[in-house]
């Protein structure tokens, strides 16, 4: 189970890295770039992967022979809810930035 938890934490750290990448783009005034859109897409996919890993972990907890499942199930619900919020926000921001990047590229081509 501990090895599974370590493997399941990989999407979190990938999303954290890409979150810092988006903040770096914001610091360099390059928010409306394809790199920021790609980073937000990766964050969204990592949040969805985290939801999947937590769901499998919840099944593992519920099928085990433990008398104290409530804490693990509650933590899984909290992590899943947070991941859903992050995935939704990342998808929304990705769509907005994609539209802005397309509009910017059209304006750059205008003479």
Please sum up the structure shown.
The chain is 86% helix and 0% strand.
Please, could you describe this protein's structure?
- With 111 residues, the chain is mostly helical.
- The protein is 86% helix and 0% strand.
Write the layout of secondary structure elements.
Blueprint lengths: L1 H7 L1 H18 L6 H30 L6 H40 L2
Key words describing this protein structure:
mainly alpha
The end-to-end distance, rounded to whole angstroms, is 60 Å
Mean model confidence by pLDDT: 91
Task: Flag low-confidence runs.
Answer: none
Report the count of strand segments: 0
Count of alpha/pi helices: 4
Element order, helices and strands? Answer: HHHH
**How large a portion of the residues is in β-strands, by DSSP E?**
under 5%
Indicate the structural class: mainly alpha
Q: Please bin the fraction of helical residues.
A: over 70%
Shape: elongated
Largest sheet, in brief, is: none
Rg, Cα atoms, Å? 18 Å
């Amino acid at each position: 189970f501990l090895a599974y938890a370590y493997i399941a934490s990989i999407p979190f750290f990938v999303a954290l890295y890409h979150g810092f990448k988006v903040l770096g783009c914001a610091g360099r005034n390059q928010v409306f770039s394809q790199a920021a859109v790609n980073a937000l897409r990766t964050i969204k996919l990592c949040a969805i992967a985290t939801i999947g890993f937590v769901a499998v972990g919840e099944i593992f907890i519920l099928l085990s022979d433990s008398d104290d499942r409530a804490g693990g199930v509650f933590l899984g619900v909290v992590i899943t809810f947070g991941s859903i919020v992050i995935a939704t926000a990342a998808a929304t921001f990705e769509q907005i930035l994609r539209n802005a990047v397309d509009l910017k590229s059209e304006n750059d081509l205008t003479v």
